[in-house]
Amino acid sequence: MGRMCEPLVVGRVIGEVLDSFTPTQTMEVTYQSNNLVFNGREFSPSTVSSKPKVTVHGGELRSSFTLVMIDPDSPGPSDPYLREHLHWLVTDIPGSTDASFGKEEIVYEPPQPNIGIHRFVFVLFRQRGRRTVVALPSAREQFSTRRFADDNGLGLPVAAVYFNSRRETAARRRR
Question: Which PANTHER family match (predicted)?
Fold first, then answer.
């Protein structure tokens, strides 16, 4: 599996959300003011309130990608009975571009964790062709990244990254 996936194993993303995979693409997720997402980094909800820029590096322009953003800890990490909550879904992203060039199927919903520390996971899939994603979810709650990938013939992910976030207290927001 390699060193690139070790933080995903430690963070229980591989296992709880994704099956083991070998990353074959580089995905860069950046929030406002050049806040780069890397595995396990913590962001306040106010920092991630706007849609991030998600760039796919190294893909051929002919290839297309699907991006999924989920919270596997909804409504709380000790009892995530709504696992997974879908925050964003973008399809038909051309290789070597960013998500703004794709088709936003599910509008970005900013993370707003109420209890505990939540993981927010970005998963990138290579599509088998243009417009191959046809089975769209009917709800954000109880989404399954694995089932979505199976239903749309996406196979294993080609990249994934996650960050942590917790509820912002009034004292933290004032800083």
Answer: PHOSPHATIDYLETHANOLAMINE-BINDING PROTEIN (PTHR11362), PROTEIN TERMINAL FLOWER 1 (PTHR11362:SF13)
CA distance 45 to 95: 29
pLDDT of residue 135: 87
153 DSSP assignment: T
b/e burial code for range 23-58 (CB count within 10 A of at least 16 → b): bebebbbebeeeeebebeeebbbebbeebbebbbee
User: C-alpha distances in angstroms, 151 versus 13, 103, 107?
Assistant: 20, 18, 20
**What pLDDT was estimated at residue 62?**
81
Nearest CA to 162 out of 1, 51, 5 is that of 5
Q: Residue 123 has which token pair?
A: 């998963």
Which residues are CB-neighbours of 111 under 8 A, at least 6 positions away? 45, 48, 71, 87, 118, 120, 165
Neighbours of 96 (CB within 10 A): 15
Residues 6+ apart with CB under 8 A from 13: 72, 119, 121, 160, 162
At residue 148, the 3 state secondary structure works out as helix
Summarised one tens digit per residue, pLDDT across range 128-158 is 877 778 889 999 999 999 999 999 999 999 9
Tokens of 101: 């060039």
